[in-house]
Amino acid sequence: MKLLEPSILETLGYMKSRVVMSAMTRNFSPDHKANGDMAKYYEARAKGGAGLILTEGTIIHPSADGYVDVPYMYTQEQAKSWTSVIDPVQAVGTKIFSQLWHCGRISHPDFTGGLPPVSSTGRAAEGVNRQNGKPFGEPRALLENEMPEIYQQFVNAAKLALDAGFDGVQLHMGHGYLVDQFFDARVNNRTDRYGGSVKNRCRFGLELLESVLSEVPAEKIMVRISPSRFMGDIYNWPELEEMVGYLLPEFNNLGLRMLDISCANANYFETSQPVIVLARKYWPHLLLGGASLSIEQAEEEIRQNHLDLVTWGRAFIANPDFVKKLRDDLPLMQFEYDMLEQLT
To answer: Which residues have C-beta within 8 Å of that of residue 33, sequence separation ≥ 6?
Structure first.
């Protein structure tokens, strides 16, 4: 079974399995640094058989925050705190990437030092922010001359992460956060060269990637996008086929070789899979995806060349030894929400 066997993959090299622990926010970093509980948490999943771990979203700059008690990758001290996480994970042959995160308008001045969140738009996200029980903050649309500063924040975070020992970084361009706020025509109402057409809406993300690639080796960079997800109903990018058909070749031309197409907590076959099938027309390189698939479904996705690596999230929260249980055909613990209150 390819899913559970060691393999040599493009860019990543040796992998002890094709099972990936997806990035999941856990809110266990009150001082914005990694700690001993987090180290034990990730080590258990590595010992349990994960081939690759994507860390919880890690904020690239204080102004990029939007969540309670999440880690940062902004200072040397914050970066070095991750060494206690990285070393035991890598010691058992598991690779670990830092997911780099800017929340954009999915935030509130409570989390950004009193400043308005920044976004592609000046319109606030609808609904209530579960992090503070308040409506999402009214954002400020980024000016064109401010965008290089955001790119440099990602560059700084990527370099800090790699200096700390991470195997790579994942640039979070999905799930409604900052870069996705440029991709998504429902959110992006700009009239400059960063809004309107498919090409313009992709410009911010592509310039960001180009900036990071100019200072970080391509084999250390992965991108996450989420063109389709569930938000009370199926939520797709407007002009989805045109977006994928333009964006992925541009990613390829810039030198990106690892892509994660994520639908978060949604039905994979209604969201990510149709996008992944479309993506394979344009993307011959390493591709990750998944959402609560059975072992048989995951193996079939690999067999059909839809995916190279398969991601799981909540299954890893409930089962630190998730891959070992798959391998030994043991029953899995079912995820329950009270598990989120403990980092075990």
So the answer is: 71, 72, 77, 78, 81
- Beta strands in 231-276, from DSSP E residues, in sequence order: 234-236, 258-261
In angstroms, rounded to a whole number, what is the distance separating the alpha carbons of residues 39 and 33?
A: 11
Tokens, residue 245: 């058909």
Calpha distance 82→165 (Å, rounded): 8
- Closest residue by Cα to residue 55 from 324, 321, 316, 323: 316
Q: Is the Cβ–Cβ distance between 222 and 169 less than 8 Å?
A: yes
**Domains, the chain, ordered by start:** 2-341 (3.20.20.70)
Active-site annotation holds for 42: no
Tokens encoding 252 = 């390829």
Following DSSP, what letter does each residue of 99-121 receive, concatenated? EEE--TTSS-TTTTTTSPPEESS
Positive/negative CA dihedral, 240, 246, 249, 252: negative
Q: Is-above-0.90 flag for pTM?
A: yes
Residue 317 amino acid letter: I
Three-class secondary structure of residue 20 per DSSP: strand
Q: Any idea what DSSP says for residue 124?
A: P
> Which contacts qualify for 111-117: CB closer than 8 Å, 24 or more apart?
111/65, 111/66, 111/67, 111/68, 112/62, 112/63, 112/64, 112/65, 112/66, 112/137, 113/62, 113/63, 115/63, 116/140, 117/63, 117/66
Q: How many residues does the chain have?
A: 344
CA distance 254 to 283: 13
Confirm if 94 and 168 have CB atoms less than 8 A apart: no
Q: Enter the tokens of residue 107.
A: 């935030």
Q: Counting runs of H as helices and runs of E as strands, what totals does the chain give?
A: 11, 17
Mean pLDDT by 10 residues, the chain (344 residues): 96 97 97 98 98 98 98 98 98 98 98 97 95 96 98 98 98 98 98 98 98 98 96 91 98 98 91 97 98 95 98 96 96 92 88
Say which of 177, 194, 246, 268 is annotated catalytic: 177
